[in-house]
């Protein structure tokens, strides 16, 4: 799809959390550029595939500037002082560091304001060992502002304005992330936008406008498996004096359930691994969540057709954020199954 639209794209690999087994597999598939927001992951990528172009997709912190120059070929930036530090370090390491300037389009995360664009670029163009290779934007990452054709046209116009003002070619207009894919499928991405950064849709096949799986893609590339460590019939309603649990949640009593019993299964994972139970969806649709603590997850298995027992494995699909938590957990074993 990107090839047909003359668009370059790079996979965003932060979800793999530096896992060498997974990274090695992805890197062999052929992407020339790879993106990540964690410097440690870029170090691993450069170790596995030194020739790959690495893009650090958030403004760098001052303390990591030397390693940004070592391990990131390109970085996203919004502060002149940061680019000045990058310039100084690039001179010291005798490298040319490329930057993409992020522009605010309404989601109010990173990005310089449009009215500051010309003055900002004028100062950056004067810095040694810095090459401005693109402009970019992020939407739907903080405030939930969705992309539109008008916003992407605005981004393209910024690029044209800079080129006309300074007589310098801006190679890339990095229009955004997975949330932009549905617009591309509908032909609503202007031709000036020529670069995408794709993570969630690549790994989960999701259309983020409709919240459903794109045709011919898969939503089960990542699966979480966990073993049942207890299964017991218990009262449906807790008993005793009650306060908020360690997560700050207060259990609401449904008086109609007094005296009823519930078959509960406890799994060998918890919030330390999954962050939120809302990020998981059991493959068995008859299972439902009761709750979770730091190390255990409790399911209602009362109405299931399958006779679950201790030692059985329950399988879950995950959202992008759910998989991020699982991949970042040192307590979860990761396997690559071909």
UniProtKB/TrEMBL annotation:
The keyword Transport does not apply. Its cofactor is pyridoxal 5'-phosphate. InterPro entries: Ala_racemase, Ala_racemase_N, PLP-binding_barrel. GO terms for molecular function: alanine racemase activity; pyridoxal phosphate binding. Residues 37-204 form the Alanine racemase N-terminal domain. One of its GO terms (cellular component) is cytosol. The keyword Zinc does not apply. It comes from the Bacteria. Keywords: Isomerase, Pyridoxal phosphate. This is Alanine racemase. It comes from Planktosalinus lacus.
């Amino acid at each position: 799809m990107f090839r047909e639209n003359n668009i370059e794209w790079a996979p965003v690999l932060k979800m793999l959390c530096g896992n060498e087994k997974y990274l090695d597999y992805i890197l062999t598939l052929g992407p020339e550029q790879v993106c990540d927001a964690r410097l440690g992951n870029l170090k691993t990528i450069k170790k596995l595939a030194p020739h790959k172009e690495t893009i650090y997709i958030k403004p760098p912190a001052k303390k990591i500037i030397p390693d940004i120059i070592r391990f990131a070929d390109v970085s996203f930036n919004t502060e002149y002082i940061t680019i000045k530090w990058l310039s100084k370090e690039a001179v010291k390491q005798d490298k040319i560091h490329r930057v993409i300037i992020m522009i605010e389009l309404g989601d109010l995360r990173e990005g310089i304001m449009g009215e500051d664009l010309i003055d900002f670029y004028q100062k950056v163009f004067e810095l040694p060992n810095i090459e401005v290779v693109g402009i970019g934007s992020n939407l739907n990452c903080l405030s939930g502002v969705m992309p539109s054709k008008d916003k992407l046209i605005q981004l393209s116009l910024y690029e044209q304005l800079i080129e006309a003002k300074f007589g310098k070619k801006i190679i890339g207009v990095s229009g955004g992330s997975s949330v932009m894919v549905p617009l591309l499928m509908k032909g609503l991405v202007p031709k000036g936008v020529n670069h995408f950064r794709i993570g969630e849709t690549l790994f989960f096949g999701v259309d983020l406008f409709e919240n459903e799986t794109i045709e011919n893609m898969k939503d089960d590339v990542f699966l979480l498996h966990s073993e049942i460590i207890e299964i017991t019939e218990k009262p449906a309603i807790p008993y005793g004096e009650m306060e908020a649990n360690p997560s700050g949640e207060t259990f609401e009593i449904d008086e109609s359930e007094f005296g009823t019993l519930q078959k509960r299964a406890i799994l060998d994972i918890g919030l330390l691994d999954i962050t939120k139970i809302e990020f998981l969806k059991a493959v068995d649709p008859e299972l439902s969540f009761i709750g979770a603590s730091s190390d255990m997850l409790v399911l209602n298995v009362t109405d299931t057709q399958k006779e679950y027992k201790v030692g059985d494995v329950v399988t879950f699909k995950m959202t992008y954020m759910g998989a991020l938590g699982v991949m970042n957990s040192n307590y979860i074993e990761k396997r690559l199954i071909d």
